[in-house]
Design brief:
Length: about 210
């Protein structure tokens, strides 16, 4: 069987760690993390990327949760697909219950997953298109202070993937730049593992139907 992966760059490290050496994975493609700033465009881009794999793979793991505009995306693409369960990538890496509890515990929380910690403050600037304002001579600090005025905590999510010390240092640096207190929590890879298992089962079924005598 042949499996493709089309996922958000924010989840790349976790997905790569879980699929390393897996010969069933024949295509991997990670899309820019800031696509969700424009939900409609993100949906079109993900659909296009998945559809480009038609005839090349048996099934696709769409490495996105519902993320504002991707609900039921697996039902409209041309290739049999499996999506991640959750509202967004943080929910995927923390689990729904832990994610909700963390938001209740501190409403003004910036969730620093390994992917976001790795990207750092530049990711926020890019995501919010502050880079264009900087080019015009405006100070990024001015806009960041306004945007993060309601935030009080930066919560680092340790998923057990990557260099924890390096990622933690980057997360701490992010918190310091925005004057947020810094805390840590433990994430989970179970949601990603479940999605990978589901896409393998789907690919196996599709392959068996296409080549029933093989």
């Amino acid at each position: 069987m042949k499996i493709g992966i089309v996922a958000c760059d924010i989840l790349k490290n976790e997905i790569e760690a879980l699929t390393a050496g897996d010969d069933d994975i024949v295509h991997r493609e990670y899309l820019e993390f800031a696509l969700h700033v424009y939900p409609a465009e993100m949906r079109e881009k993900v659909i296009e990327t998945v559809n480009n794999l038609e005839g090349k793979v048996d099934a696709v793991l769409i490495g996105y949760a519902t993320c504002q505009s991707l609900d039921s995306l697996d039902k409209v693409v041309k290739v049999p697909s499996v999506m991640l369960e959750g509202d967004d990538c943080i929910g995927v890496l923390m689990g729904t219950r832990s994610y909700e509890e963390a938001k209740v515990d501190c409403i003004g929380t910036w969730f620093s997953s390994p992917g976001w910690a790795e990207q750092g403050i530049e990711a926020v600037i890019k995501e919010l298109h502050l880079d264009s304002l900087i080019d015009e001579g405006y100070s990024s600090e001015y806009f960041l202070d306004i945007i993060f005025d309601a935030y009080t905590r930066c919560l680092f999510i340790d998923t057990g993937v990557g260099d924890k010390d390096e990622l933690l240092e980057k997360s701490l640096d992010f918190a310091e730049q925005l004057n947020l207190r810094h805390e840590c929590t433990v994430g989970t890879l179970e949601n990603l593992k479940t999605a990978l298992h589901r896409v393998k089962q789907l690919a196996k079924t599709v392959a068996a139907n296409e080549y029933p005598n093989s």
